[in-house]
Write a structure and sequence with these properties.
The complex is a heterodimer of chains A (about 600) and B (about 350). Chain A folds into four domains: about 10-210, Pyruvate-ferredoxin oxidoreductase, PFOR, domain III (Pyruvate-ferredoxin Oxidoreductase, domain 3, 3-Layer(aba) Sandwich); about 215-395, 3-Layer(aba) Sandwich (Rossmann fold); about 415-485, no CATH class; about 490-600, Rossmann fold, CATH 3.40.50.920. Chain A has 19 helices and 23 strands. Chain A has a seven-stranded mixed sheet with strand order 11-10-12-13-15-14-21, sandwiched between helices. Chain A has a six-stranded mixed sheet with strand order 3-4-2-5-6-7. Chain A has a five-stranded mixed sheet with strand order 18-20-19-22-23, with helices on both faces. In chain A, strand 12, helix 10 (about 295-310) and strand 13 (about 315-320) form a beta-alpha-beta unit. In chain A, helix 9 (about 270-285) packs parallel to helix 10. The relative contact order of chain A is 0.09. Chain B is an alpha/beta fold. In chain B, about 30% of the residues lie in helices and about 20% in strands. Chain B has helices at about 40-55, 70, 90-100, 110-115, 120-130, 175-180, 195-205, 230-235, 285-300, 315-320, 335, 340-345, and strands at about 60-65, 80-85, 105-110, 135-140, 140-145, 150, 185-190, 210-215, 240, 240-245, 260-265, 270-275, 305-310. An eight-stranded mixed sheet of chain B has the order 2-1-3-4-8-7-13-9, with helices on both faces. Chain B is globular and about 75 Å long. Classes of the chains: A alpha/beta (about 600), B alpha/beta (about 350). Chains A and B meet through helix 1, strand 9, helix 7, strand 11 and helix 9 of A and strand 2, helix 3, helix 5, helix 10 and helix 11 of B. The complex binds thiamine diphosphate, iron/sulfur cluster (SF4) and magnesium ion. Thiamine diphosphate binds near residues 138, 140, 142 and 146 of chain B.
């Protein structure tokens, strides 16, 4: 909470309300970048409508010297640039906070509050006076609020100038006009108000080993580094930017040096059924292939995913979750696809999944996903969400191990085939439940018939109970054995803590921040984040070792808790659900509140906290 | 469907192709379709076409959906990889496979249910992308495998075995493909191997999507009187619009093939397709004219057959996507991964 008595340097949140399609994104990005370059940990969350132009949109920036970068709903500063949302925007500011607004037109006295400070700047008037053309004026209004914030927050203006020079390179005119807009806001703020505000910036050195990027960009880059050559997809928010980024990276890194032709093939399919079908076809031929989708697309892919599971064809699927069911809220986040992913398709199916928490893991898990898919000859899901995929995260600089060689799994070469007597596609030759695979076109002896129909271990059609069971039982063992191949859980043990917390994906930041707050209140909780399915054996042990384990996730039905109940030997009565599923990224207070309430119910709150 | 291989009895007279392979080497498991099913005749024609084109079986990929027709890839070319996918979605698998390895010969087998109902969208989009493959639509007017329901290709007035009369207009794959811009469109009859084999060979040689609609009667559910997809009806209404001869590369065009009324189209690989006009003024290289001719012929109740349209200059999917000439599966990892220095450089933009 804002409090004038406390030094609020490098620990605050601000929110900017604008209209969709007015070009505020680049102004907000500039703001983020300036904070980041001052060495202070920062995150940016884009709250956008499912709309192209005209509806309200917000950008939230959290600055936190301790590195707590989960969403917080406590905004110290509101930059209210959209008159339509003034009322709700003003309501959202914490007591003692600030509202920066366009004073070209007066605020409706009914929406004023006396516990916040209003800082009016005539942005529209200033831009009309100084710039020509409606579009330019609208754009420059955005840059001007960055200028005002530079004064209020004490952002380094030289740094902003430097950033503009980088961005517009040789276009001096653009640099000048942007700098002029910055100065308009900056000067007005300095001349009319006391600057800086108690909430402000101070240079630090906590970002030099980091970068800012989205999970979708990172995932796409992972695909490039993993050597994926075929991408098939159908556009859907919030997954689209994976293929957009893949295309852009391929344009840079995947041109044949001799011919200039593409060392990749991206197919925009007619729908998600076709997209996953193409991935299966390409993987069957030996390419590393992937698709990116979200809930509705995932539902459509179901039949094909069962085919890939049963016929044992690798496939990599990025599911960037959004709020369901059905079309749901396409521009809001959720973790509601866990069941759909794990059990996609009819019959006994079960899929391998990786659960990244942030863009850094999106990159590394993307690479692992291809290795695991080819090793286990089955679909592998990278389950991220809108928050990870589309928001701006500060993460450690990515590194690439030059020693990496792709794990192509058990694929027989022409020489291998020449040497064997006979090849049988689904035979468990090595006793590891993984059969050998051949690629079309390699050798006549490698030929087999891939089918989703009942087949025996030789690949032949069967309706025989035993022959059928032999294959599906082996597949079950194969998938089970992948528990050792998926990323291990992330664990932070609190010594002798009676309680545990298990979480997943993007909940990480909010959960860790909450645990710090709870610890300050004398509540010790150990932390575990599952990072893959099938669950690592340590997950059940962790739950068993604590009296109560809070399962923190972002869906209504407690899907992770239910999966833990069904897919591990952990006792259901040991787990308590802590859920948030309203579509915004999880905040620490959701977790603190959920845990506190549960402890209170259980009569386990420390004295004085109840 | 069983997986018994036929007894290998080598007939001394069994002719060998240039690869030293006999027709037998292009065969597959024993068919489990009903005796007399048109699909088995199509299988035989496919065996002959591949044998005569001297395609190494392991360099071909047999793709199919679900249906009696889609089962047939098990009955030919044992040494080819086969992929019997899900109902109506073979085009997607074939498209992905082709994207990954453009050097294989792709043969897709489908039925009228598989292609014109559940898979209509995928068929249209494979045509639109001009995926380099031969697509054989074994058309019997019914869903054979699910026991004889009308399919979307059933003609108005055609009577089912149970006596129901079909009232819905058919989706006719030939004008459909022509309208969508297909670069190779043919119709044939499973009972006319002489016509079908050269068409299949031309289709396999064509660079781009080659669609062959083969009327292939279902003896069990749609071969009775009142059916417009029966053997008898097809025989009496079949009208060969244009005769096709396929002349492989390095082969002399004979005088018999080159009579005054023929047109030759040179295929991508240098082989030749010879057209001999049977219907007056029919031009198999003029899309608009072909379409209007075929519409009129359909209205008359004719089953127009032959290689009805051919355009060899179209850009296939890889040409449109500007992919490298070699298969993507053959590109070594080192050429695909940008490496650590590039990663470091790239990340400067994210600071
Ligand atoms: C998703 C799905 N729905 C329904 C079926 C049942 N089914 C199997 S084959 C078939 C129709 C096949 O008809 P066609 O393609 O004309 O093949 P034919 O048997 O006539 O050769 C249907 C509906 C299925 N396999 N999958
Ligand atoms: S049911 Fe019809 S289509 Fe199927 S095998 Fe028998 S004859 Fe052929
Ligand atoms: Mg049929």
């Amino acid at each position: 909470m804002a409090n004038d008595d406390i030094d609020r340097a490098n620990d605050f949140a601000l929110k900017i309300g604008t209209v969709n399609g007015t070009g505020s994104a680049s102004a907000n990005a500039m703001l983020m970048q300036a904070i980041f370059r001052m060495g202070v940990p920062v995150s940016g969350k884009n709250l956008f409508p499912s709309n192209i132009q005209g509806l309200p949109t917000w950008y939230e920036i959290r600055v936190n010297k301790h590195g707590h970068l989960a969403r917080t709903p406590d905004f110290d500063i509101m930059v209210a640039m959209n008159a339509e949302t003034y009322q709700r925007d003003i309501e959202e500011v914490v007591s003692g906070g600030y509202v920066i607004y366009d004073s070209t037109r007066p605020l409706d006295p009914d929406i004023l509050r006396d516990d916040v400070t209003f800082l009016g700047i005539p942005f529209a008037d200033m831009c009309v006076e100084n710039f020509k053309g409606a579009r330019v004026r609208i754009l420059m209004k955005n840059i001007a609020y960055v200028g005002a914030l530079a004064a209020f927050l004490e952002l380094d203006v030289d740094l902003i100038r430097e950033m503009l020079a980088e961005k517009f390179a040789a276009k001096q005119k653009l640099i000048d006009s942007n700098m002029q807009a910055i100065s308009l806001g900056y000067d007005y703020a300095r001349e009319n108000f006391e600057c800086p505000l108690p909430v402000h910036m101070e240079p630090m050195d906590a970002t030099s080993d980091s970068v800012i990027l989205t999970g979708n960009t990172a995932a796409a880059l992972g695909c490039v580094y993993a050597g994926a050559t075929v991408g098939a997809w159908y556009p859907i928010t919030p997954a689209t930017s994976i293929m957009d980024a893949f295309k852009e990276f391929c344009g840079r890194f995947r041109k044949d040096p001799e011919t200039g032709k593409n060392l990749y093939c991206i197919v925009q399919a007619e729908d998600e059924l076709a997209a996953i079908g193409m991935v299966i076809g390409a993987s069957w031929c030996g390419a590393r292939a992937f698709t990116n989708t979200s809930g509705p697309g995932l539902s459509l892919m179901s039949e094909f995913l069962g085919l890939a599971y049963y016929a044992e064809v690798p496939a990599v699927v990025f599911d960037v979750q959004r709020t369901g069911p059905s079309t749901g809220m396409p521009t809001r986040t959720q973790q509601g696809d866990l069941f759909t992913v794990i059990y996609a398709s009819h019959g006994d199916t079960k899929h391998i999944a990786l659960f990244p928490a942030d863009p850094e893991e999106c990159f590394y898990f993307a690479v692992s996903a291809f290795d695991i898919a080819e090793r286990f000859q089955t679909p592998v899901f990278v389950v991220s969400d809108l928050d990870i995929g589309m928001n701006d995260w500060m993460v450690p600089r990515l590194e690439w191990d030059e020693g990496y060689t792709p794990d192509r799994g058990k694929v027989l070469t022409a020489e291998d085939l020449e040497a064997v007597e006979e090849f049988h596609r689904y035979e468990d030759v090595d006793g590891d439940a993984i059969p050998y695979r051949t690629l079309p076109g390699v050798h006549p002896k490698g030929a087999y018939f891939t089918r989703g129909a009942g087949h025996d271990k030789y690949g032949g059609y069967t309706e025989d109970a035993e022959a059928y069971k032999e294959v599906v039982d082996r597949i079950a063992r194969k998938i089970e054995s992948a528990a050792a191949a998926v990323p291990e859980p992330e664990v932070r043990m609190a010594i002798d803590a009676p309680f545990g917390l298990v979480t997943i994906g993007a909940c990480r930041g909010a959960a860790l921040e909450a645990l710090e707050q709870l610890e300050a209140d004398g509540i010790e909780i150990s932390y575990m984040r599952v990072r893959g399915f099938p669950f690592h054996p340590s997950v059940a042990q962790f739950i068993n070792d604590h009296e109560i384990t809070f399962v923190v996730e972002q869906n209504r039905d407690g899907q992770l808790l239910k999966l833990l109940t069904v897919e591990t030997w952990a006792g259901k009565d040991k787990m308590t659900s802590v859920k948030y599923y309203g579509g915004l990224p999880l905040s620490a207070h959701h977790v603190v509140q959920g845990v506190t309430e549960a402890l209170e119910k259980a009569g386990r709150l420390p004295a004085g906290k109840a | 469907m069983s997986y018994i291989t036929k007894p290998e009895v080598r007939h001394p007279a069994l002719e060998e192709n240039a690869l030293g392979l006999t027709r037998r080497d292009y065969e597959g498991a024993m068919s489990t379709l009903c005796a007399g099913c048109g699909h088995d005749s199509v299988t035989a024609a496919i065996v002959q076409a591949f044998f005569e084109l001297e395609i190494p079986p392991h360099r071909a990929a047999k793709m199919s959906g679900i249906g009696c027709s889609s089962k047939t890839p098990a009955y030919f070319m044992n040494e080819s990889h086969g992929f019997n996918g899900v109902h109506g979605r073979m085009p997607a698998i074939a498209t992905g496979a082709n994207a990954a390895n453009r050097d294989l010969v792709y043969l897709g087998i489908s039925g009228d249910g598989d292609s014109l109902s559940i898979g209509l969208g995928q068929l249209c989009h494979a045509i639109r992308r001009n995926v380099n493959m031969l697509y054989v639509l074994e058309n019997n007017g019914v869903y054979g495998l699910t026991k004889g329901q009308f399919s979307a290709s059933a003609d108005v007035g055609s009577v089912s075995k149970r006596g129901e009369v079909n009232r819905h207009g058919p989706i006719n794959p030939v004008p459909l493909a022509l309208t969508l811009g297909a670069t190779f469109v043919a119709r044939s009859f499973s009972g006319d191997k002489k016509q079908l084999v050269p068409i299949l060979k031309a289709g396999l040689t064509h660079k781009g999507f080659a669609m062959v609609d083969v009327i292939s009667p279902c003896v069990t559910f749609n071969d009775h009187e009142g059916s417009t997809k029966s053997y008898a009806h097809t025989r009496t209404h079949n009208f060969e619009v244009v005769q096709t001869d396929f002349v492989p590369l390095m082969t002399e065009i004979t005088a018999e093939q080159d009579r005054g009324d023929t047109t030759a189209v040179t295929m991508h690989d240098g082989s030749t397709v010879m057209f001999r006009r049977v219907a007056e003024d029919y031009d198999p290289t003029d899309r608009e004219a072909a379409l209007s001719y075929l519409r009129a012929s359909q209205a008359k109740g004719e089953v127009a057959t032959g290689l009805l349209y051919l355009e060899e200059s179209g850009a296939d999917m890889h040409a449109c996507e500007n992919t490298v000439d070699r298969p993507l599966v053959d590109v070594p990892f080192g050429d695909l991964c940008p490496g650590s220095a590039a990663l470091e450089e790239l990340q400067k933009e994210w600071r």
